Structures are given as structure tokens and as C-alpha cells.
Prior knowledge:
Blueprint: E1 3-14, E2 17-19, E3 25-29, H1 30-35, E4 43-48, E5 54-62, E6 69-72, E7 84-93, E8 104-108, E9 114-119
Parallel strand pairs: 1-8, 2-6, 3-5
Antiparallel strand pairs: 1-7, 3-6, 4-5, 4-7, 8-9
Amino acid sequence: MNITICTSKIHRATVTEADLNYVGSITIDQDLMDAAHIKPYQILQITNCSNGALWRTYAIAGDRGKGDICLNGPPARIFQPGDKVIILAEAWVEPEEMERIEPVVVFVDDKNKITEVKKHKLIEPFTNG
């Protein structure tokens, strides 16, 4: 049995562009993709902190160092420049793989420049007994 997990996250990035006429996807600055270990065409979940909208799409690498976060195609209707978003990268893993997973969280400033990168280790669930 596989389970879906979060492998990395870009926390509170700022949308820089919304292009309704592009075919689809999210364009992300290559520096941010590298820091979050996101691969081109990887499926991502994007949550809009400004309006609560959630979208799933795939990643496209943007120009390195420009801070681009552009929602392309239909999500351009619900993600607008200036909105804060959380971008989650997912993977399917076997439960026994969980012990080796250390999700990466990439923190950015208002111009989508990296301010900090943290790795999180698995926290054992609380058991009563």
C-alpha cells in the first residue's frame, strides 16, 4: 500500500503573475525548485492563503533568481499577483519509507527570495499507554 506524503513545501510565496492564456501549470523560479527538490512536471498542490482556493497542477521551471510564481491557465482566475500561496510537493511512498523522509520547507520573503530552508524529521505519534 502506498500513501501520499508531502516531500517539500515553499511557504507563503507571493504570486507574481497569473496567465489565463497559457496552457496550464505553475511556473516557479528554478532556485526555489532546487531548494524544495521540486522536479519539472512534478504534481504540486497550491493553496491560496488569500482566498482558501486549492489547485493541483504540475511544475515548470522559471528563470533562475527572478522570483517567479506564475499560475497558468484556469487557476489564473483564482490566483492573482500579490496573493500568498503555499506550494506542496507530494510523493507516494511505502509506509516503511516514512522513517527516511525529511520534508524540506523553503521560507521566502515578499520577493520570493529564500530566507531559510529547514528539514523536518518524522515526529512519532503520541500513544497513550
